[in-house]
Amino acid sequence: MSTLTLLAVLLSLQNSALAAQAETASLYHQCGGANWEGATQCISGAYCQSQNPYYYQCVATSWGYYTNTSISSTATLPSSSTTVSPTSSVVPTGLVSPLYGQCGGQNWNGATSCAQGSYCKYMNNYYFQCVPEADGNPAEISTFSENGEIIVTAIEAPTWAQCGGHGYYGPTKCQVGTSCRELNAWYYQCIPDDHTDASTTTLDPTSSFVSTTSLSTLPASSETTIVTPTSIAAEQVPLWGQCGGIGYTGSTICEQGSCVYLNDWYYQCLISDQGTASTTSATTSITSFNVSSSSETTVIAPTSISTEDVPLWGQCGGIGYTGSTTCSQGSCVYLNDWYFQCLPEEETTSSTSSSSSSSSSSTSSASSTSSTSSTSSTSSTSSSTSSSSIPTSTSSSGDFETIPNGFSGTGRTTRYWDCCKPSCSWPGKSNSVTGPVRSCGVSGNVLDANAQSGCIGGEAFTCDEQQPWSINDDLAYGFAAASLAGGSEDSSCCTCMKLTFTSSSIAGKTMIVQLTNTGADLGSNHFDIALPGGGLGIFTEGCSSQFGSGYQWGNQYGGISSLAECDGLPSELQPGCQFRFGWFENADNPSVEFEQVSCPPEITSITGCARTDE
């Protein structure tokens, strides 16, 4: 080989190495998912792990030990999407998850074995965790993919836990002495064999998994989307019996204990020390429809607010979670959309950077349709209806930091609440966020990011948890639409601003708001704070489309004018309305000084959106 040829070969190898290095994703950066066109290999010391079908992330190998065998993700995606599966050391087989690490769950493609001295424990359908063997009897749990469908295998589901039903992907084999019984088409439960009051159909106990029908096959009737029980039967329900849920027509009165929400299709009579956190919480009166008739009924349903602190390593958030979000030690850290965990402070730095990419669809079409706001004392562009609870004043430690070279200045505020899909809920609005802001259907379920806004005939509205709450007498969290001088949707969507009020009775108070919306008619450095009952603005039909008629929304601009009028709003929105006349002191468009800060996790856990460039 000539010297010239040898030099050419060496140069080619060097270029290949440089190209490979350039296409390597850094630790905690994205490395795959639907429509992903970037790097699919991770730097040394990390591997590419699927967080959901739309977001794969480079995570440190310290979260697990692995072999060099590679597999690709086979999670089912919408037909319009293209999945980019990482190409090497993607989801390595032979992984051993460390103590308190994730080891299974729907869409989980990581380690399913636990380090010595721990075992994989079923926490919920989306999160299995390695816990010390001293915490219970080990049960081998694993997940794998077959023909594009995630399969979950578990030795046993706990007594009284769900074990089947439409859309269910968890374990279907119950503990010894219990059987998996059908309570309705959407909920099967592990019930003690000596308990005869529940429904009669029993599943085959040898089956470890039942592939069940997707919820999309449910009837399209709007009445079936309402979840709360009705009191149409006089007889009492025995302990552990069903007392509510979609399609349920029996009694909602329990002989013992309380009727506790478990999921949209199943409420259960539980005694206080065996229910979830919601059994010890306050109740709220909400309006629902009986699925067997068109009559409107006011019922009492448990809220999901708990004031008890969560112990270290315990769950503190996630889709469907109804417990406390306050950790007794450490911080509440996002692990995936269904599981937030209390972790020691030294472990939160790496975990929080994975922030939620959530349920957004990553199809490349970024619809330009969005809600705009109005001038005067209110504009428009957000809305509300989610089954998640409004955080309490004890749910945050006020963790946020000023962003160097971020937005800052002086500005003005207005207020609004129009029940429209936020503009930052559309995909493609920003290239520097983990995913679009969540939007919800009328029953509170999180919708695909491409769902049309309910203000123009669609089904998507602002999730009702996107309303403000107080942290203490001087600090509150919330959400707002905004127009920033020199800013755009790309730079402002999902940023958090520290608003220090400089006028009115709340001068000196501070509010951290995440920008979830924009408005073409907002002025420069104008913040339109999302306050239920603050005025519908130009989109006068959004809230009636979401909640129906019969509610009093006040003036089109400015909204209601007294605390008593909050009772005329849907119960889901009353906490945010009461906030206006409490902590906010009914201040009328106060001026502010503002600066960009990092978003507290309590806020990003609600919207599912966080900035990736801060």
UniProtKB/TrEMBL annotation:
Tell me the enzyme class. Answer: hydrolase
Q: Does the keyword Hydrolase apply?
A: yes
Alphabetically sorted, this entry's keywords are: Carbohydrate metabolism, Cellulose degradation, Glycosidase, Hydrolase, Polysaccharide degradation, Signal
Record flagged with keyword Aminoacyl-tRNA synthetase: no
Cross-referenced Gene3D superfamilies: RlpA-like domain (2.40.40.10)
Q: What's one Pfam family here?
A: Glyco_hydro_45
Q: Name one GO cellular component term.
A: extracellular region
Q: Which residues form the CBM1 domain?
A: 23-59, 95-131, 155-191, 235-270, 308-343
The residue ranges flagged as biased composition, category Low complexity, are: 349-397
GO BP terms: namely: cellulose catabolic process
The protein's annotated catalytic reaction(s) are: Endohydrolysis of (1->4)-beta-D-glucosidic linkages in cellulose, lichenin and cereal beta-D-glucans
Cite the GO molecular-function annotations of the record. Answer: cellulase activity; cellulose binding
Ranges for region Disordered: 349-404
Alphabetical list of InterPro entries matching this protein: CBD (IPR000254), CBD_sf (IPR035971), GH45_Enzymes (IPR052288), Glyco_hydro_45 (IPR000334), RlpA-like_sf (IPR036908)
What residues sit in the active site?
418 (nucleophile)
Query: For this UniProt entry, which residues form the secretion signal?
Result: 1-19
Name the family: Belongs to the glycosyl hydrolase 45 (cellulase K) family.
The name under which this protein is listed is: Cellulase
